[in-house]
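Exercise 7. Given the components listed, write out the predicted structure of the assembled complex. Treat all entries as one system.
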Amino acid sequence: QQPVQSPQAVILREGEDAVINCSSSKALYSVHWYRQKHGEAPVFLMILLKGGEQKGHDKISASFNEKKQQSSLYLTASQLSYSGTYFCGTEMVGTSGSRLTFGEGTQLTVNP
Amino acid sequence: KAGVTQTPRYLIKTRGQQVTLSCSPISGHRSVSWYQQTPGQGLQFLFEYFSETQRNKGNFPGRFSGRQFSNSRSEMNVSTLELGDSALYLCASSLLGLGNGYTFGSGTRLTVV
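Answer.
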């Protein structure tokens, strides 16, 4: 079951904040966040394991609400380098091995 | 530390042909997953291998197959190519799989004509 991401696209000015949401109808074991720039491979940002974890580095952080099966990615004081497509990927409870299911992506554009 | 290496970077094949793509994971990573990326379908899971065993398989026809070798290198094969198989094929490696982050390779861009 593919997770649902919102919004599909967002345009920011440098320095503004953004929130990207990811929700699933299935019980989740973990949520991953990746950023992909045009013509490049997706790059791992962070993983949140079930249990209400919050993580972050630099000005990018994320949270995981296990009860709601939702995760949010927070980008604060955005920089031009934050532009790209953000994907959440989910691993479901009960999965043997690893099977990451990705959302459709959120296209983030940061303008000067 | 070398990243995930995929070869070749680009391929052009004719309908009906078959193709083999290669992936060398990060040293020490035992889980290798394959994804197909297209503008219309996004990132679709193909399969995951761990210690030479396929642990998970996505919803792709049997024309798509893969394997993993004892050194964790992996190959995927697509037989009887169709136009709709044109896509970017991404390989990702992870230390153990479940609960670990993935490092993606740059991908192989396959065009079927």
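Discussion: Chain A touches chain B at residues 29-30, 32, 34, 40-44, 46-47, 49, 87, 89, 91, 95-105 (CB under 8 Å). Chain A has a mean pLDDT of 90.
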